[in-house]
Amino acid sequence: MVPPVFGNPFTLTKHRVMRATIGLLFAGSVLLTSGCGELVNGANLKPTVKYKPSTVGGDAAESTSPAAVEATDTASSEGVGTLRGKVEFAGPFTPLPPLYLKGSDVKDKDVCAAVEAPNETILVKDGGLANVFIYLRKAPKGSSPAPEASLIFDQKSCVFKPHAMIARVGQTVKILNSDAVAHNTHTYGKKTVQFNSVVGENNAVGVPMDYKQAEQEPIKVGCDIHPWMNAYHLPIDHPYAVVSGEDGTFEIKDLPAGKHEFKVWHEAGGLLEKALLVTIKPGDNELTIKVTPSQLGK
Questions:
Q1: What distances in angstroms separate CA 41 from CA 31, 36, 49, one per listed residue?
Q2: Which end of the chain is more exposed for a tag (fewer CB within 10 A), N or C?
Q3: Is the separation of the CB atoms in 93 and 293 below 8 Å?
Q4: Rounded CA separation 138/69 (Å)
Q5: Per CATH, which fold does 74-92+123-296 belong to?
Q6: Segment 116-142 mean pLDDT
Q7: Sign of CA dihedral 98, 103, 109, 111
Q8: DSSP for residue 78
């Protein structure tokens, strides 16, 4: 006797395939849900957002692809850190002679040559290199607005003070003149609009100026009346920038934890580091930057 058939074999196989497909769809939905920050096995998965750093001389681009270049300006919720360090001059140093001596026959010598004019191109003290700009290539999102307080940029004994300065975009710079002769302040911006204005003698009120755009590197500031006068400004659109002090030390506060790329620039050597990778941890962080004489043309 032929045994009874209780179902079509093809039909049974199709049902098994349907059940398997439903199971796969369910498993896929769990995986998709876990990737959106929901609870998986009791753990809350938080997505990490990374930003592709800007290329040198180019515009920054945000990356949402996991195959993007390793991020350096990484958004993080792990807190902030302070970066402290020193720029060390790695070699012997002989102080540069003054630009001219006291009593020299220069323009407006009664004022300008009342004292000798220092050569501030390279300044080294206690092994530290002064006037080095250290700054993020690109700021993380959410940077604070420019401070309301004005910066002071003065001229005394025919020397700009300070020699190196950082100015936030939109922040007012008051240009004073502590000399009894007129000067003019001329900025040589590449992206931002150039400023060129006479600043009268003994001007304690100041001529206001502000930078409209950020620059990739510091720009030169000169005086057309007294051509030996020069200084350097870095117009920038975030707060993560500093100029090393007379002993080479520096400090940048409130850096978001994560990986960052810094630029390092000095007037005698230009761009010393175009992408110095530093990992910032919450709390204090230390960094030593060594600069050799050859990097500064010595």
A1: 12, 14, 23
A2: N
A3: yes
A4: 15
A5: Immunoglobulin-like (2.60.40)
A6: 94
A7: positive
A8: S
278: enclosing H helix or E strand: strand 270-280
Of residues 293, 265, 238, 250, the one with CA closest to residue 73:
238
| pLDDT tens string 181-210 | 999 999 999 999 999 999 999 999 999 999
pLDDT of residue 128: 98
The pLDDT of residue 73 is: 46
| The model's pTM | 0.75
258's tokens = 């994560």
Q: Using the structure block, give the residue that is written with the tokens 């681009």.
A: 61
Query: What is the Cα–Cα distance from 89 to 267, expressed in whole angstroms?
Result: 14
Question: CA-to-CA distance for 292 and 288, rounded, in angstroms?
Answer: 13
Q: Any idea which residue has 């720029």 for tokens?
A: 87
The letter for the amino acid at 99 is L
| Whole-angstrom distance, CA of residue 162 vs CA of residue 154 | 7
CB 258 within 8 A of CB 277: no
- Structure-token match 């323009």, residue found: 107
Q: pLDDT for 235-284, tens place per residue?
A: 999 999 999 999 999 999 999 999 999 999 999 999 999 999 999 999 99
- Four-residue CA torsion sign, 84, 89, 94, 100: negative
Q: Which residue has 């050597």 as its token pair?
A: 269
Query: What sign has the CA pseudo-torsion 216, 166, 130, 197?
Result: positive
